[in-house]
Amino acid sequence: RNEGMVLFSVENETFNLSHDRIRQACREFIIGDDRDDLLIRISYVLRNVGQSPQTEWCLYVAVDHLNTIPPEKMDLGDLAKLNFDSSQIAKSRAANVKENELLREGMRCLESSDIIWNEYDFTLEYYKAVIVSEYSLGNLGHAMVAIEKV
Length: 150
What we know:
The protein is mainly α. The chain has seven helices and three strands; from the N terminus they run E-E-E-H-H-H-H-H-H-H. It has helices at 20-28, 32-49, 57-66, 76-92, 96-112, 120-136, 140-149, and strands at 2-3, 6-9, 14-17. The chain has a three-stranded antiparallel sheet with strand order 1-2-3. Strand 2 and strand 3 form a beta hairpin. Helix 4 runs antiparallel to helix 5 (96-112) and helix 5 packs antiparallel against helix 6. The longest helix has 18 residues, at 32-49.
């Protein structure tokens, strides 16, 4: 049943906000550590929901939330992998700019994590994806930086 800006789900008797901006505004009222903890919990749920092709969009939302959380609160290796997985979904949808944004954010996490080059195959695959993405978008300087690191 639609009640305007708030949607009521009869099946599970819950209310959902119908617009992302309303959700964003509600989150802005929560500050500091509580906000970060809320985003981590929301992202955990979204990651679990986003396991099928029909709900993979949930991974985008989860990674966008997690990328806003201070690095000291996150497992940066895990976040780098989530950014990589999400970038591959974006690539499969021909969303090249989104793919590049996710790869760059994930690279920031990867370079700050303890898994860089400890997980050699993943790191090499990540750099290859970055090089191809940057080159495809004409960002030759960024591609060269990645090539030099490899």
